[in-house]
Amino acid sequence: MDISKADKLKQHFSTRVTNQARHVLDLWRCLHDDQWQSARIQDLLQANDKLLRFAQRFDSEKYTKIAEKFDAILSSLEAEALPSSEQLNQLNDLMLQLSQGVLRHSDSNQSEKMIVVKKPVYMALNDTDNALQLAQQMEYFGLRAEPFNTQDELDQAIHKRHPLAIIMDIDFQATDNGLAIIKHHQGGEDDHSTFPVIFYSSHPMTLKQKLLCLRLGGISSLESLAPQAIISRIETLVNIVPEQPFRILIVDDSKSQALYTEKALNAAGMITEKVINPMEVLEVLESFQPEMILMDMYMPECNGVELAKVIRQDKHYINIPIIYLSGEEDKETQLKAMAEGGEDFLTKPVDPRHLLSTIRTRGSRARELSQLIARDSLTGLYNHTHILKALDEQIKLAERNNSSLCFVMVDIDHFKQVNDNHGHPVGDEVIKNLALFLSQRLRKTDYIGRYGGEEFAMVLPGAGIEDAHNIMDEIRNNFSHLLHGGQAALSSTFSCGIALYQGQKTSELIDLADQAMYLAKRDGRNCVKTCPSSD
Questions:
Q1: What angle do CA 497, 500, 502 make, to 5 degrees?
Q2: pTM for this prediction
Q3: Which of 40, 194, 450, 465 could make an S-S bridge to 376, C-beta 3.0–4.6 Å?
Q4: Where exactly are the structural domains of the chain?
Q5: Are 363 and 342 contacting, i.e. CB atoms less than 8 angstroms apart?
Q6: Cα dihedral sign for 376, 381, 382, 384?
């Protein structure tokens, strides 16, 4: 069917709007690294203005509103002034909304559909059968793979266009030849740009080989071509969702010192809250929910060590990093303070670079630990407890913002037969593939969990019932074409139930989604049902 001239024009502007949105997101990430330099702010304002013009011309209301609000906040900053934590919160929220629009591909408006990654993934593998199967599987995840049979073909392709990544057999056409090919292309004298490489070997790699892979830009060294592992690794390269800023609580009875610290953290894009009176800490902890506490040692009515002990008595804050900021220079006193609940001790005056480096290192580790606690070990998705916690939190937000919300339940069809006929390792692979498929196809701001066994649950903030049905039905259809189990090459399907939040209790919403899912089972499986029905 031929596309009309009007539709072609729509598609053209759709692509321009979405690509410009990606550009704005890239500049936003760089802004924090450059400490909010005025030149970088102007670059971002110009890019946002271009996004606004594209959005208005294409009649994209969603992008227009985001760009207008973003410009209003950013333009309101006085010369050389840094945004407050409140302004940072608002700007971060707008960038999150922008990334949702780019990643979401269930809306009827083409301008807000996910653009499939344009750059291809090059593959140079001796096992051509596995390469073709892997390329086919990658297509279902929106990744375009180009296999090559000879070094000449690969060399020409790299010279013409750098790929998103290369999957390279270290022994491509000859022993260690894959390593030699990448060494030739990575950061040559005339071209200092590099590209990520996933190295593969059909035999166990030596430490020397793994070190060489790392030095040549290797992001993984694999001894299996399991699609799930490769696709999940490539997924990290195309994730455009801005990382959520660290939330830091500053406890210091000196207003000037607290303000100095706050400005340094705000310049790095971190959200802060100050407490000048230490006796107010517990109330602020509950309302602000920080990821880290910067605390003075000597304050009126209590000292930092005593306050840290009290905080640690609450199980909700047992893992939150506490860093002491103090003029105390005695090493013995510092060590005793850290032994009583602190993770680090920085002596005032603190170099801002040292402070930021410490916060980022401690904060990243704390986030990783928190994620490990909240995640299912097999799939990496939220576990049962934390997906329900996410549902509770999103219900409160939906009520406060008067926004829509859907809860989704998915159950793999005939899963017992998969385990009985193909073994539990293949069953685990089906579960992991579905987990990856859901993570890749849904927005990065949606919540996805393994509810138990072969059941999954999803919380979709801002999604209407029709929206949720469309995206889940598309996922269902594409997942049914995936092959699992290597040489066994079996396919699998799932049944899905969706419930729209309309003021119910959490347990009632879960029951409605569960009922819709069992209705899908009753009606022949491999389908999506909603409550209320969208049929």
A1: 145
A2: 0.66
A3: 450
A4: 5-112, 121-235, 248-372, 384-531
A5: no
A6: negative
pLDDT band for position 102 (cuts 50, 70, 90): low
- Give me 251's structure tokens: 């406890």
In CATH terms, are 121-235 and 384-531 the same topology? no
The confidence score (pLDDT) of residue 14 equals: 66
Answer for the pair 470, 127: CB distance below 8 angstroms, yes or no.
no
Taking the chain, what is the end-to-end CA distance rounded to the nearest angstrom?
A: 27
CATH of 384-531, one of 3.20.20.70, 3.30.420.40, 3.40.50.2000, 3.30.70.270: 3.30.70.270
Q: What digits encode the pLDDT tens for the residues 323-360? A: 988 887 888 888 887 877 788 888 888 888 889 889 99
Q: What is the pLDDT of residue 10?
A: 56
Assign 13 a pLDDT band (cuts: 50, 70, 90).
low
Q: Taking the domain 121-235, which CATH number applies?
A: 3.40.50.2300
Instruction: Return the biggest CA–CA distance within the chain.
Output: 79
Residue type, 176: D
Angstrom distance (rounded) from CA 460 to CA 408: 8
**21-35, 103-117, 299-313, 424-438: lowest mean pLDDT where?**
103-117
C-beta separation of 429 from 228 below 8 A: yes
Among candidate residues 458, 463, 453, the one with its CA nearest the CA of residue 439: 458
Report strand pairing: 494-500 vs 405-412.
antiparallel
Strands (E), 433-517: 447-452, 455-461, 494-500
Task: List residues bridging with 200 in a β-sheet.
Answer: 169, 222
Q: What is the length of the chain?
A: 535
pLDDT tens digit sequence for 302-325 = 888 889 889 988 888 888 899 988
β-sheet bridge partners, residue 448: 458
Question: How buried is residue 181: exposed, middle or buried, by Cβ count under 10 Å (0-12/13-18/19+)?
Answer: buried
- Identify each DSSP E strand in 90-157 by its residue range: 121-124, 145-147
What fold is seen in the domain 248-372?
Answer: Rossmann fold (3.40.50)
